[in-house]
Amino acid sequence: VAIDLAKAGDQVAKARAAFLTPICKYYGTETGMKVADRGIQIHGGMGVIEETGAAQFARDVRVTAIYEGTNGIQAMDLVGRKLMDGGEAAFDLLDEIEAGATGDLGAILKPMAQALRKTTEDILALEMNDRFGGAVPYLMAFTRVLGAHYHAKAAATGDKTRQSLAHYHLTRLLPEAHGMMAQARCGSGGLYDLSPDDLAA
After folding, report:
1. Which residue has the higher pLDDT, 1 or 70?
2. How far lies 85's CA from each of 1, 89, 148, in Å?
């Protein structure tokens, strides 16, 4: 989606593509690593035995969170360069999410999108180092809200499978965004309170 929008030519579309790029890169690769890890887990002790192939998937997918900018750098880019427009691209996307939040699922999604809007405003008011301190949880919160938005849109087609998936995401995964947003607003507070000497055995 981000790549296609980047070629569209429209400045709004380009801003949307730029904003979505670190989110998509982070979420896709983190999810890939979790799936590969679960693939080992469900095999039990056999998961680490080469014959199953599960361990190879885990080794192969690990690099995806590193190349093209590590996921931490992607998160810093999101709260840094991608918010240099004063949050315009973020707020445009949240406008779209809130406008599309209808029905029972929308009643769950809309308050969370509004909370993410407030969190974005709070992030914008922080100094850059404090933004960086909350960058990863802020990006993760956006993935939860975006995922809920697209699941709700898919569910609106009436497809029963899509409706079940949407219900699962909005009732079990979306609530995690509350904690993520709380972390994002903490900034860098407490991150540098301990020195390496304090952590030495």
Report:
1. 70
2. 21, 7, 25
